[in-house]
Amino acid sequence: MQYRKFGKLDWEVSALGFGCMRFPTVDGNRMSPNIVEEEAVRMVRYAIDCGVNYLDTAYPYHGGQSEIVVGKALKDGYRDKVKLATKLPVWQVTCGEDFDRLLNEQLAKLQTAHIDFYLLHALGKSRWHDVVLKHGLLERAKAALADGRIRHLGFSFHDGYEAFEEIVKGSDLWEFCQIQFNYMDTESQAGNRGLKLAAEMGLAVVVMEPLMGGRLADPPKDVCEAMDAFAVKRSPAEWALQWLWDQPEVSTVLSGMSTFGQVEENLAFAGRSRVGSFEEADQALIAKAREMYQARTVIPCTRCNYCMPCPNGLNIPANFEIFNYAKLFDDEPTAKFKYQVFLNESQRAGECIECGLCEDACPQKIPISEWMPKVAALLK
After folding, report:
1. Which of 55, 61, 267, 320 has the most other CB atoms within 10 Å of its CB?
2. CATH 3.20.20.100 residue spans of the chain
3. CATH, domain range 3-286
């Protein structure tokens, strides 16, 4: 296992982190609460035995069962071998007291006296203002840091760069952040700018969705052919992971592993990881793969945000991004999940009133009012 700096902390994290949101399940549904516990525990412990020292779970994963299974996996001395991360379900907070109620519930489920890395889950501009700041959650977190229930505070993020910059600069309590980042997401959400900003501020950066929910591990035929023809032989999954590990700003890369074979494979990839290992030709191949994917984009939105703000509150670029994801990867279920979780009801395509103001501002001349009903019909 290779290890990397974790922000300003005097501790090194394994290049591979174990994401506990895709455990094997009885019914094969990756979000099902019916986890195959014995196999999940075996996978987690094997990864730890092979050097993984960062486990990431969250309150809602597997219908609330992930934290319970992780707690069982960390018995028999395994808790002392890892740093444990979990997340506060910010959307369930309606008052400041909910912070402590939920945190204490999580401590009980995880069977631990403290959480090493505690995140405010899936922050964006609206949750930052309407929940975190409104209900004083940073003060609650500061008290939990003081009494030892949590050791380090961070946040996971799903919104645009401007919101990320506001949040990351909004508190001196942050020591790390978690962003969605992969070779297809360099300009969306926090993106490459967010990665570098966080690193410049001394925050550790934990990367989630390195394979876009597994989609980059199973690319279209033309992408596979380009990778197969390259001099260095890597699977599509390893190409995506090594591209991330090549970057010094990345602290650890989370993989939500569903089979024991995936654990073994990813451990091997992580063992070969190095910062600065990519040559110019490697970078060119990734750029070519990105172009091949982007050629399949249905709505030519560049996320320039000239259409924003929408007078009716829609997040126009985010709607288009999720719609394009569904078409790009032929994955409507995941797109619908993103639509429901990452967009408030007022931000969704179905709220479009076809005023046309956005179309006047769009450099790409996208007929936004025509697309919004189609986006809503697909993702509702």
Report:
1. 55
2. 3-286
3. 3.20.20.100
